[in-house]
Amino acid sequence: MTTTTVIPPQPTAPDARTPLIGVLALQGDVREHLAALAAADAVARPVRRPEELAEVDALVIPGGESTTISKLAVLFGLMAPLRARVRAGMPVYGTCAGLIMLADRILDPRSGQETIGGIDMVVRRNAFGRQNESFEAAVEVAGVTGSPVEGVFIRAPWVESVGPGVEVLATHAGHVVAVRQGRALATSFHPELTGDHRVHALFVAMVRAAVAS
To answer: How many angstroms separate the CA atoms of 188 and 50, rounded?
Structure first.
């Protein structure tokens, strides 16, 4: 009698070229960024510990409260590894509070507030106003094709000034609201809240290029 060996279906492994992108999950809109990255064809996972940071190709720093994120990053032992990875060229994208965390300098820091750094810029916290002054506006973002991006500004910072190596990608009402320096990207607004994943797709393309090189 002939027997047939049945091979059970094997789990599908992610494409080796698909970047693994972490979302700093200490505080803020983590779930929305995970969903936006997945929609932009990246594998995404939350990062809370140094060993999780070591496993990812890139990182998103979400919106939230920059002082709280700063303090929790120190508490969880993440601040030093974050600075080291960014200095070493890890692609990183910060939205709102994440933009503040990526600034080399804050114009009006809270007492004890630290940043990761990585972008040669000076930022002003809550520059567009408090929570009840939040708004949405169409923003033309360099590198994003098609119609303008719908920017959601919630207690949003703006960029006061940039160094010579920083590319300004977008402005609103005369203020810089999106920048890029090398493998670091930052926006004052929250594209993860709109269902438009083009800014995340831009970042994923940056990560793919970094991984390929």
So the answer is: 26
The model carries a pTM of 0.90
Distances, alpha carbon 151 to alpha carbons 28, 104, 137, 154, in Å: 17, 24, 5, 10
Could you read off the pLDDT of 38-63 as tens digits, one per residue? 999 999 999 999 999 999 999 999 99
**Positions marked active-site:** 96, 190, 192
In the chain, the largest separation of any two C-alpha atoms, in whole Å, equals 82
Strands 119-124 and 103-106: parallel
Cα–Cα distance measured from residue 112 to residue 70, given in angstroms and rounded to the nearest whole number = 9
Helix (H) or strand (E) holding 79: helix 79-87
Cα 171 to Cα 133, 168, 187, 188: the distances in Å are: 18, 8, 10, 10
- Helix %, strand %, coil % for the chain, to 5? 30, 30, 45
Asked whether the beta carbons of 93 and 21 are under 8 A apart, the reply is no
Give pLDDT, residue 179. Answer: 98
